[in-house]
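Summary: Need help interpreting a holo structure output

Steps to reproduce:
1. Submit the protein chain below together with the SMILES for zinc ion.
2. Request a joint structure prediction with the ligand placed.
3. Inspect the structure token block that comes back.

Expected: a single structure record containing both the chain and the bound molecule.
Actual: see attached output.

Input attached:
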Amino acid sequence: MRGKMRGVQRSSTRAVGATSLRFAGSSGVLGVCARGRSALDRSVIGLCSLALAALALCATRRAAAQDRPASDAAVVAPPAPTPTRYAIEASLDPTTHIVDGTLRLHWVNESAAPAVDLWLHLYLNAFANDDTVFMRESRGQLRGVRNPGRGRIEVTSLRTDAGVDLLPRARTDLIRGDATQMRVVLPSPIATGDAIDLRIVFRSHLPPVFARSGYVRDFHMIAQWFPKLAAREPSGVWSSFPYHGMGEFYSDFATYELALSVPTGWVVGATGEQTSEEVRGGRVVRHFRADRVHDAAWVAWPHFRERAVTHEGVQIRILYPPGHDAAVPRHEQAVREGLTRLGRAFGPYPYRTLTVVLPPRGADGAAGMEYPTLIVSAGPWMDMPGIHTPVPEDVTVHELAHEWFYGLVASNEVAWPMLDEGLTQWATSRVLADLYGESRSAVSLPGLTLSNFELQRLFALHGRPVPAPGLPAYAFDDTSYGRSVYLRTALVLETTRRSYGAARFDRAMGHYARAQRFRHPTPDDLFASFDGVFGGGFSDRVLRPALMRGETADARLVRLSSVRNSAGAYLTEIEAQREGTLALPLWIELRGEHGERRRLPWAPGVPRYRASFTARTQFTAALLDPDRHNLLDADALDGTIAHRRAPSRAVLSRLVALFYAMIAAVGA
Ligand SMILES: [Zn+2]
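--- attached output ---
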């Protein structure tokens, strides 16, 4: 390309690659690094740190937090209870790592059709053998960690309140080798509006900590641990699926009452608020209750330290390992800022409690995960001594953002993981950008900044092509899941925001989050909110092509010529070419010898741009997308043409881009 440009230009015009370094965006790629959902993610953690360390000296200092809440006293109204209720009594044996439980389930059929069966998820069975759907799809690893051992759940009794034994009617052999779903054919259908009461006795064998659940030494992360109903759509269809290698979960809202028995002295964190506590035979039973949530998890460890604070009416518990007191203030600050900013953008956090778990060393398999009112962040050891990186805050804010995009806006995480991970990735980046300033970036040296959105772009758009982010989770492998579902979604959203206006974009996203609270939205609901603000057809032109079909918006400058004519004026000609099919408005900025600037609009849908005009000014440089709106351009290095030699940072930008392109290629 650059060779061609030299051929058609009059002087020593050449393309330079300064643009990718000129515009600092918000943090984001580190969220994926720390999320660590894939092997690539894991390598990214190290490489991000390496890049930060190698390029650094760049201990980016936090800007003073802005927009602090005026008061912590805001009242948060609790959500209304739902008719469906899970009451679970459970007891943890810390030596065998077994949880014995009894679930009393009151289920109300709120769908439009009678229920002839029930579908329960027994997700710990994902780790029961090598032939489960999870083990086959993931090849026995998650986040680059091999499965270290078995886990399973047994249902030993399943009866109605009237004593009818339903266990003989239950089948788990629905998929070869996989017992993560149980279908129970009912003796008689449950009509719309009617209820059934069940008593289910179960025994959960926790695995060595892996894929979000399990134990290491005496630390226990108890998740996906009880028989839980699949989500039932309003039409009466059960949206049940096995525990997949990619993607997560999907359930209906319910009230949860937990009675959790642990040895005396053990600390317990759980979904909901603790209502009471009692001592029974050398053990302590803690009672928790949560209204209108769609899952419940808990953590138990005798060595936790605890910090309890209140922010805007929310009681925050931070549970952390001994010796890591210094890490707590950063997580606390991230949670406080996140609650305020996410609440402002997407509606207030409606629950009274939030528990933040910093897992101990060795429990990485439990880290970076969200549950209703309980999040597990990264271990406090993740920060690099002496160099400030935003990794700890990034993970905490990411998991906190899931309280909205997953917790409150409860989309199907396997059918459309974009709606939880992608929106969360974008929201996290926005929160951190607002918190630390848009100019805060992954690299901050005198004369050189490199934004994290730009890093996301390099990861997402280089290397092997990936499926469109709007596809189901099982369409992806470990690497493409992170690059597409997380990063590409975030880039599409941020590009849309920058290109079409932040205020309107934020209004549309806020409308989606509020309108779909306590619902199970689909991408169509997201697009409807955007069409409501931007006008009908907007999503069909912009969001659907980018998110559902993976269209890109590559564009490049082809030619700049500015030649003096006989009258002493300059005839300037500029040409540019779109390589991607996504319709985005773009601008080209021409720069004159003495600092003059002229901006030319490039309308969406025009593949080849040509313009010529005569002026007294000789334009010696051209810059495509000068405000750096388009983060969907894989090669930002072909967006500048300049007569003069490029500044040294352009060379560095190429090296950085090459570095990340190589990482992406290796990861792919
Ligand atoms: Zn996430």
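--- end attachment ---

Reviewer comment: The chain has 15 helices and 34 strands. The pocket of zinc ion is lined by residues 35, 398, 402, 421, 424 (CB under 6 Å).
Status: needs-info
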